[in-house]
């Protein structure tokens, strides 16, 4: 059934807020006029200034929300007309989206579109090991195509030494970041102590109390800052349906038998502009939703090395043929429990406003 325009704008925003965002900052705001036009704005007050001074990761996060808007509008039976960065004098106005005339029953009932739409709400960032199953090459080709349609490239790090180098660089970056008080304070601002009722940031059910070791090992960000908060391995194993882990109780840094690092991949762009970051975010969400729907894959992100300019430049030169790395991730079928996540309510990030205010 074709939804009314009002429902479309509201429902599309309700979907878009489930996009991934760095530190779960949800750095977006939406303006809606006459239920047919949506403005997507970055909210610079939510930028993580220490780890992301240029706002690159903020833009990637907003790009992921933008693709989600497009997908939801299509699923609800309308064609979105999107203009990226429409006004150079207003760099935080990232896109205007006009909800076109209804495309009718077909689009709304397209089963593939429907599965992608459901995946928006189901998808969660994974933090930990994956099961050992390899990712089929046909799936990889599909993900490469998705990334290209989004304006980026999906590069698989197939060589074990490249994987090892990327893991080592992530480890180095993690140490460099944690060595500064400013970084630790910023993480603390977005990862509150257990018991928090905030609808943003990393709550203690979003990460593990101990990093699960795989070979090569990509360290998880220490959102608990050494205080042992997070989901424990035994909680995770008892709640999972016997997937992975093999009952080894392999928490901490002990490598666990059939657990795997998963597929290591980079998302890269040929430019390194605000537009390229936005497009990278769109490509990211395309890849994530497609990976979930077609192959039941989840992603773990490790962006520490991309936040250290020298390491990011090195990774670009050495492993991306000079392209600009925007995201470093691992993909696979999660071993253990899915992590939780929260969002602010759609009405808290939406303003009814005339187009002239955009
Ligand atoms: C640009 C970007 C960078 C991210 N970097 C990391 C990271 O280094 N480590 C991590 O655990 N999650 C990372 N994430 C995932 C976010 O923490 C996650 O999307 C957010 O907490 C919301 O949770 P959800 O994806 O499960 O909905 C990143 C996400 C984005 C978009």
Alpha carbon gyration radius: 20 Å
Structural class: alpha+beta
Count of DSSP E strands? 11
Note the overall shape: globular
Distinct helical segment count: 10
Strand order of the largest sheet: 3-4-2-1-11
- Oligomeric state of shown chains: single chain
CATH architecture term of the largest domain: 3-Layer(aba) Sandwich
Share of β-strand residues: 15-25%
Order of helices and strands: HEEHEEHHEHEHHHEEHEHEE
Proportion of residues in helical segments: 25-40%
Fold-level CATH name of the largest domain: NADH Oxidase
CATH homologous superfamily label of the largest domain: NADH Oxidase
Ends apart, CA distance between termini: 31 Å
Main β-sheet: number of strands, strand sense, barrel status?
Answer: 5 strands, mixed
Small molecules (ligands, ions, cofactors) in the structure: flavin mononucleotide
Mean pLDDT level? 92
Description:
The chain is an alpha+beta fold and 358 residues long. The chain has two domains: 5-123 and 352-357, NADH Oxidase; 130-332, 3-Layer(aba) Sandwich (NADH Oxidase). 37% of the residues lie in helices and 17% in strands. It has ten helices and eleven strands. It has a five-stranded mixed β-sheet with strand order 3-4-2-1-11. It has a four-stranded antiparallel β-sheet with strand order 6-8-10-9, sandwiched between helices. Strands 5-7 form a two-stranded antiparallel sheet. Helix 5 runs antiparallel to helix 9. Residues 239-255 have low confidence and may be disordered. Bound molecules: flavin mononucleotide. Flavin mononucleotide binds next to helix 2.
């Amino acid at each position: 059934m074709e939804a009314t325009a009002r429902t479309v704008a509201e429902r599309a925003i309700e979907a878009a807020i489930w996009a991934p965002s760095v530190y779960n900052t949800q750095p977006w705001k939406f303006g809606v006029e006459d239920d047919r036009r949506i403005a997507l704005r970055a909210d610079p007050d939510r930028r993580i200034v220490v780890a992301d001074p240029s706002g690159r990761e903020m833009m990637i996060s907003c790009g992921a929300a933008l693709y989600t808007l497009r997908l939801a509008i299509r699923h609800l039976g309308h064609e979105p007309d999107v203009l990226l960065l429409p006004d150079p004098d207003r760099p935080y106005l990232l896109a205007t989206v006009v909800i076109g005339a209804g495309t009718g029953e077909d689009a709304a009932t397209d089963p593939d579109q429907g599965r992608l739409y459901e995946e928006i709400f189901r998808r969660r960032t994974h933090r930990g090991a994956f099961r050992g199953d390899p990712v089929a090459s046909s799936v990889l080709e599909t993900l490469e195509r998705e990334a290209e349609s989004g304006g980026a490239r999906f590069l698989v790090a197939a060589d074990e030494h490249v994987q090892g180098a990327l893991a080592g660089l992530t480890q180095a970056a993690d140490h460099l970041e944690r060595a500064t008080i400013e970084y630790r304070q910023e993480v603390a601002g977005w990862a509150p102590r257990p018991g928090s009722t905030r609808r943003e940031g990393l709550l203690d059910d979003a990460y593990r109390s101990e990093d699960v070791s795989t070979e090569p090992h990509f360290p998880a960000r220490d959102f608990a800052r050494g205080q042992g908060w997070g989901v424990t391995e035994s909680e995770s194993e008892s709640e999972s349906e016997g997937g992975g882990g093999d009952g080894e109780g392999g928490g901490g840094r002990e490598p666990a038998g059939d657990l795997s690092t998963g597929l290591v991949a980079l998302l890269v762009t040929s430019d390194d502009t605000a537009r390229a970051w936005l497009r990278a975010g769109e490509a990211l969400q395309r890849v994530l939703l497609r990976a979930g729907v077609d192959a039941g894959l989840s992603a773990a992100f490790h962006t520490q090395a991309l936040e250290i300019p020298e390491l990011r430049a090195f990774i670009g030169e050495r492993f991306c043929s000079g392209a600009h790395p925007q995201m470093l991730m691992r993909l696979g079928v999660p071993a253990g429990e899915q992590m939780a996540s929260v969002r602010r309510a759609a009405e808290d990030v939406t303003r009814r406003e005339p187009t002239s205010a955009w």
